Amino acid sequence: MDIFRTTAELRRWSRAVRSSAAVGLVPTMGALHAGHASLIRAAAASCGQVAVSIFVNPTQFGPNEDYGRYPRTFDADCALAEAEGASAIFAPTVEELYPAGAATFVEVEGLSNRLDGASRPGHFRGVATVVAKLLIAAEPDRAFFGQKDAAQVSVIRRMVADLRLATEIVVCPIVREADGLALSSRNIYLSPAERTQALALSRAVRQTEALVSVGELRASTLIEVARQILAAESEIRIDYIEVVTWATLEPVEVAEPGTLFAVAAWVGATRLIDNTILG
Ligand code: AMP
After folding, report:
1. Which of 75, 91, 100, 249 could form a disulfide with 114 if both were Cys (CB 3.0 to 4.6 A apart)?
2. For residue 219, what pLDDT band results from cuts at 50, 70 and 90?
């Protein structure tokens, strides 16, 4: 497996291999877990060549967020990526992706201020910017993202459509622990007690799915039931509970097939998210 540090190397590789195989890209911030592994597997199943990018992107973190202490496990990440079928790792430095004097950012207007973007100002600007840089450098046929970050998917799809990028965006299902907790690189921050309380997020998601399956489609009811589930936990502070059209992140009053139900909450000092696409 190749390890590239510069965009020039990544682009050269992609252009060399693309004549004989589709190129897949899996953007990550490292600290890889089974959720990332599922993306790499999906990429390897549909693309003959797969690059995994590992880059903790400073521009998507707020000033008081966890950029400095975000887990960095490069050697284990490389081993996992290779075992799941990656052919290349792209691990640039911050200076490589943001050269001195960098002044160009990608702003997906409107969408970037909803859901996570409302509580994390600048977050989606950072995400859109780094994903644009990765897609321009790797020129992949397909790029793989997790439904876990459902609002991020909306922002990236809009950006790819608006910039007329040629990459197909593939969205993979949420991978969960056996007890329901959505896998996240940030779960390691949780104390044992917080880890137990964090299950309220997936409980709220499951309860919403159950209500919808018996015909309760009113967003206000779905939100209130979820609010009660989260509010019952002493360490949880709700950030948002939203019922929205997935593509636009605009709130709806009545859920339809394809509507996104999404929650974000602080469990102690750790912000977690979860969601479901309603059937
Ligand atoms: P991150 O490293 O957190 O930026 O995540 C990289 C990619 O992995 C994103 O597309 C995430 O949505 C995806 N991802 C993270 N956690 C999960 C999960 N539990 N299941 C599926 N995909 C995930």
Report:
1. 249
2. very high
Residue 123 catalytic?
A: no
Cα–Cα separations (whole angstroms), residue 20 to 17, 106, 136, 181: 6, 32, 20, 40
CB 274 within 8 A of CB 146: no
Domain interval for residue 22: 2-172
User: Separation of 148 CA from ligand 1 center, angstroms?
Assistant: 6
Sheet holding 236-245, edge to edge: 236-245, 259-267, 270-277
Q: pLDDT tens-digit profile of 21-65? A: 999 999 999 999 999 999 999 999 999 999 999 999 999 999 999
225 within a domain of the structure (yes/no): yes
Confidence of residue 167 (pLDDT cuts 50, 70, 90): very high
Q: Is the same domain home to 133 and 245?
A: no
How many Å apart are CA 259 and CA 223, to the nearest integer? 13
* Active-site residue identified among 14, 31, 36, 148: 36
